[in-house]
Amino acid sequence: MEWNAETLQFLSQCFLHTLSPQPEPRRAAESSLAEAADRPNYGLAVLRLVAEPSVDEQIRQAAAVNFKNHLKTRWVPSNDPNASVTFPPILDPEKDQIKTLIVSLMLSSTPRIQSQLSEALAVIGKHDFPKSWPTLLPELISNLQKAAQSSDYASINGILGTANSIFKKFRYQYKTNDLLLDLKYCLDNFAAPLLEIFLKTASLIDSTAAAPGGGPPATLRPLFESQRLCCRIFFSLNFQELPEFFEDHMREWMGEFRKYLTTNYPSLESSSDGLALVDELRAAVCENISLYMEKNEEEFQGYLNEFASAVWSLLTNVSQSSSRDKLAVTAIKFLTTVSTSVHHTLFANEGVLPQICQSIVIPNVRLRDEDEELFEMNYIEFIRRDMEGSDLDTRRRIACELLKGIATNYKKQVIDIVSVQIQSLLSSFTTNPSANWKDKDCAIYLVVSLATKKAGGTSVSTDLVDVQSFFLSVIVPELQSQDVNAFPMLKAGALKFFTMFRGLIQKPVAFQLFPDLVRFLGAESNVVHSYAASCIEKLLLVKDEGGKARYTSADITPFVPVLMNNLFNALKFPESEENQYIMKCILRVLAVADISSEIAGPCIVGLTSILNEVCKNPKNPIFNHYLFESVAILVRRACERDASLISAFEASLFPSLQTILATDVTEFLPYAFQLLAQLVELNKPPISPSYMQIFVLLLSPESWRRSSNVPALVRLLQAFLQKAPHEVNQEGRLNQVLGIFNMLVSSASTDEQGFYVLNTVIENLEYGVLSPYMSNIWNVLFMRLQNNRTVKFQKSLVIFMSLFLVKHGAQNLADTMNAVQANIFLEILKQFWIPNLKLITGVIELKLTAVASTRLICESPVLLDAAAAMVWGKMLDSIVTLISRPEQDRIEEEPEMPDIAENVGYTASFVKLYNAGKKEDDPLTDVKDPKHFLVASLAKLSAVNPGRYPQIINENLEPVNQTALLHLCTTYNCQIV
Amino acid sequence: MADDSPASHRRDPIKSSVGNVAAQRRRQNAVTVGKERRESLVRAKRLCRVGATGDGDVPVEESDMITDEEGFLLDAQTSSAVEELKSAVACQGKGAMQKRVNALRELRRLLSKSEFPPVEAALKAGAIPLLVQCLSFGSSDEQLLEAAWCLTNIAAGKPEETKALLPALPLLIAHLGEKSSLPVAEQCAWALGNVAGEGEELRNVLLSQGALPPLARMMLPNKGSTVRTAAWALSNLIKGPDPKAATELIKVDGVLDAILRHLRKAYEELATEVAWVVVYLSALSNFATGILVKSDVLQLLVERLAASNSLQLLIPVLRSLGNLVAGDSHTTSTVLVPGHEITDGVVKVLVKCLKSDHRVLKKEAAWVLSNIAAGSIEHKQCIYSSEAVPLLLRLLSTAPFDIRKEVAYVLGNLCVAPTAGEGKPNLIEEHLVSLVQRGCLSGFIDLVRSADIEAARLGLQFTELVLRGMPNGEGPKLVEQEDGIDAMERYQFHENEDLRNMANGLVDKYFGEDYGIDE
What we know:
Chain A is mainly alpha-helical. The longest helix of chain A has 37 residues, at 395-431. Chain B is an all-alpha fold. In chain B, 65% of the residues lie in helices and 0% in strands. Chain A: InterPro entries: ARM-like, ARM-type_fold, Importin-beta_N, XPO2_C, XPO2_central.
């Protein structure tokens, strides 16, 4: 794409139309842009447009966004072979030009465009900086120095912002020499200019703030933003280790840091956004000193006392205020780091702990308006923070972390003080429950948060209170309160406590509360009915010693009708239509309770109606997953009890499943195929015609095109092959099935699926039906063996040959293979079967291949021939390795990298339904023990030809294996003569 | 294929295969952005205030602090001294030589007077070209000595000031030769040592101008301050990061022999400088490391460690030992064979260092042990049954962070068997069980909480061992009791993908709910 007036016109028009509220011109513009984007120099042209002053600002802004996105996909295009689209990469000459232009363009543009270009620059930097972009850093530095001379803070902050984003790569990475070399380059060049601008800005702040009234906010704002950016860069550059330059200039940095923590800037702090700005700088400072405290405690030691006291007094103020979260969190983190370091003695002084508890911990743990708002307005986020551990950055949680930190060295003191606090909070609640309910909440929160965590979100123990008596005196009254809607946060806290300590609450006590839990499903508060559902769900998972479930179907069956009723009703509350906690509870109840037809009926109606609803617009994948699992488990367990229910389920489910297939609800297709497979398997032949329609659909290559469907389709195909083998052999369907096998097996990422199909065919069809196709099948497999011989494929091949052998005999196996090419059977044995046999894993697979191999050496004329004695011996050697050594001694990890990458592509979008899973079938039920089978077969064989085999064994088996074989003979009392 | 595989190969920090890391051998990073710790003990640049040969005629002032006024005065005196030298150099004929020497001596006195010599004033006044002229061939020893002395102290200044010596380098190198008198050669070596101490760029200039061979030869004699100065200058010169100079040095005839001799017999100050040479040889050059480990050097280092209490000496000796252990598998496979006397000796001196009050010694000793612990099963057993373990366990719970991290590597390595492949390491159950029983798990869980990602990874790896390897499925319960679940759950959304996957994987595998429970 050349840069000329025409291009300018074309691009401006397009970008203008992309902003149009009318869909037609907008879509047309988007598609012409998408098309133009494939042409060389498109990115450059768009960048030029962004720089064109004559063009309207909003067009340039749209262009800047487009430019950034263009770079994201094409600077280094993804090499994921499963990506839906692959983009042609931007060519080097164009890249060079973009890199030449972008810094100065970014600096001279308006703030909105600047932020887009800065992001674009960061995209380039991520791949190219510093090695492939040596001019960037010098350019930034010289611009920084220029801008600093004229105190042009718009530019300074633009440059610092850019530097901040390109240096972020030094955070959270493992130390490698490459990373350190890049870091060293950045430090050598940038450490000094950074300090220079930081100090310059610091003195500007000092002189401005010294003016009467604290200086004009408009002047101070960019200065504080600048200092914050410097602090973030400081963090990146210091993350890996303490660089020499920073160690040498620690005093300068720390001096300013301390100033920002201890000084007030009234002219800024009088407005809330001004205060936020100063606090952001303070928070960045706290992160830096936490980093130093954690990693460089020796060098930082000299500053520790002054910072500890600065942070302390800062926190005493901040803790009283209801906003200022970020600052409170980072500041408390610093104190936590100190508390766990070798300098923890700072906390040992008389009176320090009670004061921390009083003025820092309790105020931060107490509910604030924001928490109440979140509780009401966004229950999902509230639960994620409150229950699911994404509260790492909340004040409540971090205040408890501080207590835990101090407790690492002063456990007893912490327990004493907190216990006293809890008692006083509770007694304050008792004096006036409705006014002081937050005190009780605070007490419950402290107990839950300070307990030691156990698997699945329970608590193991707490030394703060006696759990049993706390539960009875504090929690139970809340749970038994008749009004499910009163003080909902307190109810939520009580339910959470019950859930967390569920393992410690004795069964009779918990059981008595079960009706109350069911009752709370009817609470209006989304959090409360979610917690009630969650609590029931988790209770049903509690196991006693020995792994037995504590609550059984007998326990809950009496409640099930009302429980189910309340659960389905809870899904009708506003915003709980797709409440995953409730759906998960439904799933769990269906897994535990006795599914009588009285329960199955309403449940399937309820579930299908929800299913029909979510089909219209699948939103919450977790909810949907539990929904499908619920359907699957309902069908499975109900039919296990009463097989006649299947037709009722079919009648309910078919319309929904057909809708999914017909309207191509992509997200749900794998689920639908799995449910269909389950239904097919539960059917008794003959299969009804409606299924055969689906079978036809299944065989069309169209269905297999989406890789996320493949595992589920294979599963469905297997079900059909098992249940309707005769139908498969009609109307050329077998040919179609083998076509699918052919397609799957040719690619390394789906070959396993291909073998599933093939194995099912081999297992379920008569040899007479198969024989005309065998040449073709062998051709396909040998071709693949020639083109791409992965270990996984070879192992699958050995398993397939074994299955064929045990189903259709050794002679048929050898003959069909040799029909493709003379004597290939023996070659395949030597080259693939023998070496891969010992790599087979899995109980069923091991037995299958061991038995098949044993039959080979005992039945196959080719191997019994004297000329093949060595092959015979090696095969036996392999069999003995396979059956006598533990798996980890036989198997080496396979370095099949490309496969892994490819597999990730589809497993990510394929979700397996646990409850619609296939049971593993053992094709060899008549053989119990492959070891016994081996030695018994050998004994029989050798009896016919005494003296022949011991010699072959002696010559061809590894000594270890000879010993192992001998041992097996003794164990099973068989003799090889 | 001798050396010169770039340092990046040798210094490969821990490989990132999940689970196996604790078993990897580790070495100091060649690329370092941190301050070189040597400098706090032995400065890379040294001022020469009393003549190398002890003939200093300047009364050294006791107080290093000089007032502004004095500083101003000193600057003025320096300027005029340079002027004086200028006219002396211009002067021809009778008495000119003496005049030059006098002027040089005056300048040298001024440059040696305080800890903060008036280098800037001397440079501003144009001292360098004059001093270069004074170094010309055929000048008297006295003149050469004074001029080199002046240059030495100028080079001890700030980076730019050191760089000002560039025009003087060829002549300073030339005067290192055997034809020069010892005092002149030593003074020149000193000046060059300061230049080399400045940085990589100047080191490369010196190497390309051929400074290394004559300096190396100066190290060969048995004693004398010259040997010590040369060793110090060499240690600066071969600092790299390019390993070429180190390789070149060990190839010089007699150098290996001299190193061994000095380590065996020399007084502590000389042995210290020589040990620093060994530090850089072994840190940088595979070739040199290969040669050193086949010599007696390990034995000598161990003897020094056992005999001395001088921190100045112990640090480079210990670090050399560590580099040799980490740097060449020959060391652990053939020299430090379990059961050999030297192996017990090494463990014994390392225990001594672990007991020391000095943190650097503790840390380096733990680092060396971690590398030995990464060896064979027998190595692990040897450390496991030594006096080191109780010390390490105590350090893991009480020491500052960086020592704890090194200690954790030792303990972690003791619990995993060497593996050939990349898979999960096999456990040494006996060690794991006993170390866990003695309370090391909480130390590792603390590391999981660390902001340092290497430490966090190590913590997670050890946690994995405990979860997988404690008998009777006791692992999960122990981890739970130490609040390990909470520690791992912090990684739910961590920025480091590898750590996130490790932690989430462990929580899922060992603490996940059995989601699809069946009856």
